Amino acid sequence: MSLVCAISNEVPEHPCVSPVSNQVFERRLIEKYIAENGADPINGQPLSEEQLIDIKVSHPIRPKAPSATSIPAILKSLQDEWDAVMLHSFTLRQQLQTTRQELSHALYQHDAACRVIARLTKEVTAAREALATLKPQAGLVVPQAAPASQPAVGAGGEPMEVSEQVGMTTEIIQKLQDKATVLTTERKKRGKTVPEELVRSEDLGKYRQVASHVGLHSASIPGILCLDLCPSDTNKVLTGGADKNVVVFDRRDEQIVATLKGHSKKVSSVIYHPSQDVVFSASPDTTIRVWSVSAGNCVQVVRAHEASVTGLSLHATGDYLLSSSEDQYWAFSDIQTGRVLTKVTDEAAGCALTCAQFHPDGLIFGTGTADSQIKIWDLKERTNVANFPGHSGPVTAIAFSENGYYLATGAQDSSLKLWDLRKLKNFKTIALDNNYEVKSLVFDQSGTYLAVGGSDIRVYICKQWSEVLNFGDHSGLVTGVAFGEHAQFLSSTGMDRSLKFYSL
User: Fold this and answer.
1) Is the dihedral of CA 8, 13, 16, 22 positive or negative?
2) How far apart are CA 403 and CA 295, in angstroms?
3) What's the whole-number average pLDDT of the chain?
């Protein structure tokens, strides 16, 4: 049996064997390969010339190829090689011509784009000069108040920014009270019965990733920072990204419905209105924006804060927004007029607010602070009625259960705490992994499951507080989690710029 070189497939004159791959090589060929690559050609492992082991054979005789047995055969072989070289050269010339055409087309496009940009810049400059000339006459025009149902819109279609506080009127307080009474009555009627359509815990434990979308937000500034589902149609998904955009995505059609642009900094919170085709977003640019999804534009800008807006929550009436900010204030605003109804801070604490969430009834709400406190506020009286100390780091997420009794909180101390609002005490603490970052907390609509988003995704079943699911599919930090209707699916977003869905 003759030896065959693994590189040339010919009988070697000076055979040697590689201890890395146990293959036989012609020493001349393997030495050249090692000099260029420093590795074994078979498995890519590091290899040096000193490691090669010579094989002693008695006068190996190479069999002559059939094509080399006669002069006509040799000439035919040379002719075939020449033909192959010419064909390859022709292919290269064709590719070069195509590349030149594509480059020429790209240069023409670039030149056209530069011309359009120059023209638009000139028009913008002219418009600014015209606006500057009109400003001295602005005082001669008597402005008319916009109707309460119509959002105030300024020149150029940009919504007006309204910052004055108009106060909590008796009508507003009565409206809040009436809504809370209805919700409390409905909750008592439901009692402790679990909806029949709700996915059982054993089925929930079988959930797997069924879809992943990464094209919603810009790849140059990666990261989806917040997530919400439309309560009336959970196929509509709302996301806010580090690219300053708000995106509405249809899960069923797998298409982007709208991309809403206007924020000057990243989008940190988003909410989908339960009954209108309207969404809300908040940003560190200090503004809260109200968007029309169908029109694809911003219809209202609420400027309630002087620092980054850190939390956003929609009241059960669907008419008012709660917001928290690093300026230490929480604000209660009317979404129709964009006016701030009230703005309150705890002067004794003097600490930035990190998140905010309405209680399901809407008469109380909770805020988290940078000094690890959870504060419960009475909306009608605008007073702090309870405090929940216990965390040892800034509070990053809070969520009220639909049953109205449980409050879940997460902080930078890698722990999850459950509070009983009736007894005003912490009844359960779930210790998470070291350095676990809790970024999102959400109960399902029935209050049966609690989802946690952070270093991974975890789902707990309430009352037992045992872990049902654990997903680590995101390659970055998980920033948002949300349940579909009756927990038929679970959605999540992360800093890896992906929107994922999990179901059976």
Assistant:
1) positive
2) 36
3) 87
Asked if 228 and 271 touch (Cβ cutoff 8 Å), the reply is: yes
For residue 239, CA distances in Å to 70, 228, 235, 247, 454 come to: 75, 7, 13, 5, 16
What is the rounded CA–CA span in Å between residue 460 and residue 196?
A: 19
**C-alpha span between 268 and 245 (Å, rounded):** 10
For residue range 292-305, what is the model confidence (pLDDT) as tens digits?
A: 999 999 999 999 99
Q: Tell me the residue ranges of DSSP E strands in 262-382.
A: 269-272, 278-282, 288-292, 297-302, 309-314, 320-325, 329-334, 340-345, 353-358, 364-369, 374-378
Q: Are 223 and 232 in contact (CB under 8 A)?
A: no
pLDDT at 308 over 90: yes
CA atoms within a 13 Å half-sphere pointing along the CA-CB vector of 199: 24
Instruction: Tell if the pTM clears 0.70, that is, is over it.
Output: no
- Specify the pLDDT at position 46: 94
Largest CA distance in the chain: 110
**CA–CA separation, 193 and 27 (whole Å):** 80
Helices (H) and strands (E) in the chain, counts: 4, 32
Q: Is the dihedral of CA 248, 250, 253, 254 positive or negative?
A: positive
Bridge-partner residues for 344, per DSSP?
A: 330
DSSP label at residue 460:
E
CA of 184: how far to CAs of 209, 287, 402, 450, 502, in Å? 36, 33, 11, 21, 32
Alpha-carbon gap, residue 202 to 205, rounded angstroms: 5
Q: How far does Cα 129 stand from its chain's mean position?
A: 40
What is the DSSP track for 239-275? Answer: EEETTSEEEEEETTTTEEEEEEE--SS---EEEE-SS
pLDDT tens digits along 72-91? 888 888 998 999 999 999 89
Dist CA 291 CA 154 (whole Å): 15
